[in-house]
Amino acid sequence: MAGLSERVKACVRDDVARLAPYDPNFTPCKINLSANENTYGMPEEVRSAINDAIAATATNRYPDPMSNELRDLIAAWHGVARENVCVGNGGDELLFNFFLAFGGPGKRLIDCPPTFTVYDIYSKMLGTNVVRCWRDPDTFELDMDALLPLAASADMVIVTSPNNPTGNIISVADVERLCAACPGMVMIDEAYAEFADEGTSCESLLATCDNLIVLHTYSKAFCLAGVRVGYVLAAPDVIDVLGAVRQPYTADVFAQAAAEVVTKMREGFAPTIATIKSERERLAQALSAIDGVGVWPSQGNFLLVRLPQAGAVRVSLRDDRSILVRDFSQAPGLEDCLRITVGTPSENDELVAAIANILKEAQ
Ligand code: PMP
């Protein structure tokens, strides 16, 4: 995607002129393992219930601006009150609103790269000052000794757990230390929490840490990436400020109806989530058995791999095999890395065979 034109740059603020359009490099492909979606698709009984709910949904009235029915279902699920829940048009919108409310000129964010780049993009859009606390270059674990003192003078800290694209988690004890150290807000982005080990979510801390915000999405484990629904859990006054900056009707009637059904029928996703977790381990073993391929352990539904000529391998997968994976080979700290979403067993088999062949041909 091209950068901004000179004509447009002359018309916008300096900080906007410095932005580059976000390009997730989407290309239609036979096997798409590039965006960490649930490639198994919606369980049939859930899909059918969503269809019924949508058929019964009127479109002539505005949606409930606060999605209160959905908030109540989410609150019951997580053992909190409606006042602790804010629903948004995907996690991305909630992240944007987080920056709108707590970031901006004069505010400081601590970011922990390599991580989800949207945080960096939103901070630039809104003029937030970013301080980077780099993860360990080999293991991608957080450097808590560096992070805690930085958090002490921060307005915002974001940690992704499981981290995208490296798969690491932050322990509940470390989240607690972070919340105690930081006078501002601590956002833990748990977009991939459903794929992590039992007991790794920091949600239990919401009762005691009033500066903790936990982000969730229906886009990954719950197969609603195309519908756009996410939510955050936080103290009521934090939810109020997020409510103050949000646009009122971002969760439309279909999105609310679909998310309500999914929430009620969430047990129906457990078998697929278990399969994705076991496929993750099988895929990791198969990839690391290929000469020259390194694989990091992951608690998400994706794997970070390092291999020779990763950028060229990605292009060959896409152009010669119609398999799409995400290229991080040019990203700082992720040289020669690709991120691969865990797919169905046959998608994973095809991917492994393709990578093995490409690397063999290159020898
Ligand atoms: N957080 C992380 C770490 C993500 O990887 C993503 C999606 N790529 C999101 C939040 C936002 O997801 P969505 O907007 O689909 O809810």
Describe the structure.
- This protein is of the alpha/beta class and about 375 residues long.
- It folds into two domains: about 5-40 and about 270-360, Aspartate Aminotransferase, domain 1; about 45-265, 3-Layer(aba) Sandwich (Aspartate Aminotransferase, domain 2).
- Helices cover about 40% and strands about 15% of the residues.
- The protein contains 13 helices and 13 strands.
- Strand 3, helix 6 and strand 4 form a beta-alpha-beta unit.
- Helix 7 (about 145-150) runs parallel beside helix 8.
- It binds 4'-deoxy-4'-aminopyridoxal-5'-phosphate.
- The site of 4'-deoxy-4'-aminopyridoxal-5'-phosphate has 13 residues, from helix 5.
Strand order of the largest sheet: 2-8-7-6-5-3-4
C-alpha-based Rg, rounded: 21 Å
Distinct small molecules: 4'-deoxy-4'-aminopyridoxal-5'-phosphate
Structural class: alpha/beta
- Biggest beta-sheet profile: 7 strands, mixed
CATH homologous superfamily title of the largest domain:
Type I PLP-dependent aspartate aminotransferase-like (Major domain)
Mean pLDDT: 96
Please count the helical segments: 13
Distance between the termini: 32 Å
CATH architecture label of the largest domain: 3-Layer(aba) Sandwich
Q: How would you describe the shape?
A: globular
The CATH class of the largest domain turns out to be: Alpha Beta
Number of domains: 2
Which fold name fills CATH's third level, the topology of the largest domain? Aspartate Aminotransferase, domain 2
In sequence order, what are the helices and strands, one letter per element? HHEHHEHEHEHEHEEEHHHEEHEEEH
- Strand % is 5-15%
Parts with pLDDT < 50 across at least 5 consecutive residues: none
Number of E-state strands: 13
Percentage of residues in helical conformation? 25-40%
